[in-house]
Every structure is written in structure tokens, then in C-alpha cells.
Amino acid sequence: MPKKKPSKSEKSVPSSPPVSAAPTERSGMVLRVKSSEKMKRLALMSRESEEEWRPKSGRSVKTAARGKKNVKLDAKMPKKPPTAFFYFLEDFRKDYQEQNPDVKSMRDIGKACGEKWKTMTYEEKVQYYDIATEKRREFDKAMAEYVKRKESGEDEETEDDSNFE
DNA sequence: TGCGTGATTGTTAGT
DNA sequence: ACTAACAATCACGCA
């Protein structure tokens, strides 16, 4: 029931932290060409839904088979990076387990984490947002390289890990 | 023995 | 603009 509809009244958490409060100083000037990035991302977007889409390493969502869309299961396909909340969850989980060793299920932890997450201030969350943003950037790059490799020759399996360099 | 589930929010991609 | 679905984690349950 909590399903709160996205009301415009609230700004919701800004996907991209405002530059004013954005702790970019940590990395210096991370801001570069957002337009270009967006463009590239859009270009990749088509590729993804067309050929890659998502392998679902394991049972990420619900059995990862909700619709069994004949995914190629590309082992090299970059998965979606965890969001800021997930990073916070990792940290929160450790603390939560210490305080609540009885609770082992992540379900309960998720609830507690979500509750605390809402109580956290933007400044506290922004640091996680920063991490998530940086991670996403890396993911974007990985995706670009992944697509590039595909276009190059589609190695697919052949090289498991080892060193193809 | 092994996979599916459930819960959290955020982020992305597609319609 | 909105919707939908997926991202990790981990104990438990069912076949």
C-alpha cells in the first residue's frame, strides 16, 4: 500500500545532485560533457533492447524469468550498477546485523534501511549518490565498450576470463 | 540439491 | 511524462 504515486509536489530525490550541493569537489570537475554522454547513452539504448537487453546473471528480480525474453545471456554484458540506496544498504546491513544479530533476512534489513534512508538528510545521501553516479559512469563506459566489442566481432564465449589482452 | 522469493529504493530505458 | 523492471543480498521453502 505504500506505493506512493510520483507526485510532482515533491522534487523527489534528484537523480542528479544539484551542482551547488554536488560534492564534485571530491573528484574535482567531474562535470564534462553531459550532452555527449546523453547522446551516447541514447545510442546504446537501442542496441541494448535490440540485442543485449539483459542477461540476468542469476535470479535478480523474480527468478529472472518473468517473461523469459529469450535473452542471449551474455556473460560480458554489464549489469546495472547498484543505486545509492544499495550502497547504503551494504553499509547499513553491517551495522544492522550488529545491532540485530537475530535478523538475518535482508527483507527486514531492507525495511529498516528504507526507513532510515528516508530519515537521512540529503548531505548524507549525496555521498552515496556520488558513488552511484560514478559507478554508473563506469557502467556506461563498460557498456559502450561491450557494444563496441560486439560490433567488432562478437567474441561471445571463446574467452572466459583469463586474458584476452 | 538447487533455485525462487521476498523487501528496500534508485536508476535507467522504453513506450 | 509515466511505467515497468531490474540492481544486491541472504535465509528459508518447496520440489
Automatic annotation (TrEMBL):
<dbReference type="InterPro" id="IPR036910">
    <property type="entry name" value="HMG_box_dom_sf"/>
</dbReference>
<dbReference type="GO" id="GO:0030527">
    <property type="term" value="F:structural constituent of chromatin"/>
</dbReference>
<feature type="domain" description="HMG box">
    <location>
        <begin position="78"/>
        <end position="147"/>
    </location>
</feature>
<keyword id="KW-0539">Nucleus</keyword>
<dbReference type="Pfam" id="PF00505">
    <property type="entry name" value="HMG_box"/>
</dbReference>
<comment type="similarity">
    <text>Belongs to the HMGB family.</text>
</comment>
<dbReference type="InterPro" id="IPR009071">
    <property type="entry name" value="HMG_box_dom"/>
</dbReference>
<feature type="DNA-binding region" description="HMG box">
    <location>
        <begin position="78"/>
        <end position="147"/>
    </location>
</feature>
<dbReference type="InterPro" id="IPR031061">
    <property type="entry name" value="HMGB_plant"/>
</dbReference>
<feature type="compositionally biased region" description="Low complexity">
    <location>
        <begin position="12"/>
        <end position="23"/>
    </location>
</feature>
<dbReference type="GO" id="GO:0005634">
    <property type="term" value="C:nucleus"/>
</dbReference>
<dbReference type="GO" id="GO:0006325">
    <property type="term" value="P:chromatin organization"/>
</dbReference>
<dbReference type="GO" id="GO:0000785">
    <property type="term" value="C:chromatin"/>
</dbReference>
<keyword id="KW-0238">DNA-binding</keyword>
<feature type="region of interest" description="Disordered">
    <location>
        <begin position="1"/>
        <end position="76"/>
    </location>
</feature>
<dbReference type="GO" id="GO:0003677">
    <property type="term" value="F:DNA binding"/>
</dbReference>
<protein>
    <recommendedName>
        <fullName>HMG box domain-containing protein</fullName>
    </recommendedName>
</protein>
<dbReference type="GO" id="GO:0003682">
    <property type="term" value="F:chromatin binding"/>
</dbReference>
